[in-house]
TrEMBL record:
Highest classification ranks of the organism: Eukaryota, Metazoa, Ecdysozoa, Arthropoda, Hexapoda
GO CC field: SCF ubiquitin ligase complex
Any one Gene Ontology BP term: SCF-dependent proteasomal ubiquitin-dependent protein catabolic process
GO MF annotation terms: nucleic acid binding
Protein name (record): GH16156p
Amino acid sequence: MFRMRPDIKNFYIERGVAYTEDREVVRQLTISGSRRFLKYQLLKYFSIFGKVEKLHWKKKKRSGSVLFYEATHAAKALYCTKHTIDGHDLYLQASTSWHPTPVEESGTLSAYDLPITDDIWWKVLDYLSLNERLNFAASCERFQAIYELDSHRINHVLNMKDVCTLTHRVIKRLMLLSGKHIHCVTGGPLHPNWPYLTEFVQLLGVSCPNLTELSFFKISVSLAHMTHLFDGANGLINITNISLRRCNLKDAHIYCLQMLSKLKSLDIRENFSIKGDSLKSLPISLEILNVSGCVDLSPKCLIQLAALSHLRELRCPGIVKFAKDNELYGRLAHYCPMLEVLELTDFMNVIQLGGLSRLHTLVIHSSAQLDYHVNNVLLTSIAESYSLRHLEILDSFGPMSDTSFDLSIFSQLKELRTLILHNQNFTTLHLMGLQKLSTLEFLDLSGSPNLSNEVVAKLTKSLSGLRRLKVDFCPLITRQLTKILEGNPKLQVDF
């Protein structure tokens, strides 16, 4: 539990004794003053709180330390961190050490002398939290040996929820014992009072040579953090997958990624201040890019992805400033011919994707800025991508009244396996246009207000390869549909 920030106070007092955040009893205090006090003045003053064992004072530097015989005496002095001697200020904090001297008690046994097998220690390891494991390892040599042997298993993935329970010193211990075993760091948001993100990211690059995946969510990442992580001399040069979703990134942050020659996947969704100028700096090795919901990103900046010759997946729905013309699609086809997966928001009810010969997955989101509906021009444009295996047209704004479309156009998609069409006014005639999709395995018609049990039964009879049907939020569909389709045991129906 982090009761207070160390830059304000680095201790807390409980039952008359001061403790550091690592639960160490405080007897020694650090001193800093506004003037060059004389040593006898300080000794006389601190004697008010209890017996002083040792006092160090560097007059020129105006700093030093005082060691009390009793922890309760030190706590009395710490009840107020600002003191006044002869009209001048004096400041106190708890004195901590990164390498405390272990205290051995006479008559104690080493853990190696105890009649406990390693199997029992391993079971203890599984029951403890990350913080408890590391603290136990620091106090027990045998347990530390067990921890290090099993570190490759328990620390392969490091969750920020667990990291947020660690103090600075325990973070350093984690990196020392387990850094080489960490392959993935994931999680967020952070504990609101945890102050060690900077120290943590500084150690990642130095201590985790095998780290290949970093995934932060709702963690405010500063430019300094990005530099420590990716752009410094000790950056994560072996990283292949980065996800920084809702991390308050700007274009300046993205420039820090340009030297990551092994980067394959980048997810920077919902960072609302990215304008896109930095996309030209992304490493050429990038294969997957997700900029969904980056509402301030200019669509023209997507053309800067031309340098990414290996880019095969682009997800960019929710870009508010999306160009209302077809020029972008043509340029994507020209500059990114390797695209296999494309997710976008269509503003014009028409897209031109004929040049993307490798495209096998297409996801189209509707726009809230116009009356969006499926039409024959849109369907014909989609049908130009003969290699499509997965198609989604997502209308999240409710069913539209327009019915001037012919789903039989999709019969040109000979490789189509998955078809998802949400919130459309399908009639029986419309749906029968899908009968020639012999390769279809999954069909999702959720949100279709006119879809009935009888229509579904007639359609599925024609689609012999269909293995799953989803008809959520269809008011005319009833439980009777399960009995109607009993003759097709291979078909799974979700409603």
